[in-house]
Amino acid sequence: MKASVSRSTANIYANCIAFSELGAGDSFALMIAGKNREEQETIAQSTLERVGLSDRLHHKPSELSIGQQQRVALARTLANSPSVILADEPTGNLDPATVDSVAATLRELNDEGITIVMVTHDPRMAAHAGRVEKLVDGKIAAEAA
Questions:
Q1: Which of 23, 70, 98, 126 gives a 20 to 30 Å CA spacing to 120?
Q2: What would be the CATH architecture of the domain defined by 2-144?
Q3: What percent of the chain has pLDDT over 70?
Q4: Which pLDDT score is estimated for 11?
């Protein structure tokens, strides 16, 4: 059970993990098991295209904005076709336009059947959710949306 859950679940964090010496596409190799280099490149290209960064395939994190790094992290999350995405403040460090872009992508993924479980303090992100649970002192206090 544990192995199947870990393969079908992916994570996005506020402070995306960037591999400083790897280009955006090369970092996918660390996330995609059981695929040859050509398949990894194809997956990297298609998922980067999905988040609007197909032209950044070979750019290192130092050559990307924080928002672009976060979208690369989102693309890597999609690389293994998860059925559940756990998103911990996925837009915490982003400008408003990038927040809207990430929110739209997460909404599209949810509309495609991927479950998104997100923790956020941003009411704009919460507004995109189909269901919102408020936590107060570690307990569910109210349901909204």
A1: 23
A2: 3-Layer(aba) Sandwich (3.40)
A3: 79
A4: 72
